[in-house]
Amino acid sequence: MGEAVMTTRTQADGAIVVDVRGSLDAATVDALRESLLGTLTRERPRTLIVDLTFVVFMDSMGIGTLVTGYNAARETGTRFVLRNPSDFVHRQLRVTGLAEMFGLPPASSSAQSFTG
């Protein structure tokens, strides 16, 4: 199982960014879920950005956690954004049929942000 580090920061425009580094799998998804749901509950941001630039691996549990965050954000009226998914992450979301839900284009582009 991998390791992941999550940090949270607020942008100048008030959006909250959760930066994720490492692997999203059974060993790490609880921390991400807690970070996403806790931030939504405590802060109720207008926009929650999950930056996936440095995610090197993601399995079905990681995908499920992103879906949980997406659904929780919708319930609180928060815009949920996936920023810079790595090629691997983008491919996983396409294969599972979830890329469209997250607003991802047909092919990855690390220079863009994607909203859902």
Automatic annotation (TrEMBL):
Coiled coil: none annotated. GO terms for molecular function: anti-sigma factor antagonist activity. InterPro entries: Anti-sigma_ant, STAS_dom, STAS_dom_sf. Belongs to the anti-sigma-factor antagonist family. Gene3D superfamilies: STAS domain (3.30.750.24). PROSITE patterns: STAS. The lineage of its organism: Bacteria, Bacillati, Actinomycetota, Actinomycetes, Micromonosporales. This is Anti-sigma factor antagonist. Transmembrane segments: none annotated. Residues 5-116 form the STAS domain. It comes from Paractinoplanes toevensis.
